[in-house]
Amino acid sequence: MKLNLLPGVPPKVIMAISEKNNYLAKVVKESHTTIAHATKIMNRLEECKLLTKTKDGRKMIIKLTNKGLKLQSHLNAIKSLI
Question: How far is Cα 11 from Cα 42, in angstroms, rounded to an integer?
Fold first, then answer.
């Protein structure tokens, strides 16, 4: 069953972002996608005010906003029902 809340944004990418997985490379590995696809998704999520991105040297740090954290908790609830 596919859950498509935001067109072009797989929920597994949102679910992969956490305090532990807050670097783009870690999110890519956890969500089984490519860096190009993840970057496109991150840009879309940033436009929707679901996350913020900052650079730390060569690393991109990703943090969910309060709105993004709410979405993630709702996705967790849905995932537990399936």
Answer: 12
- For residue 72, the surrounding DSSP H or E stretch is helix 66-81
pLDDT in tens, 2-26: 445 566 567 888 888 887 778 888 8
Domain count, the chain: 1
Domain that holds residue 62: 11-81
- Tell me, rounded to whole angstroms, the distance of Cα 6 from its chain centroid: 12
**Amino acid residing at 60:** M
Look at residue 42 and give its three-state secondary structure. helix
Query: For position 1, what pLDDT does the model report?
Result: 41
Asked if residue 42 has pLDDT above 80, the reply is yes
40: in domain: yes
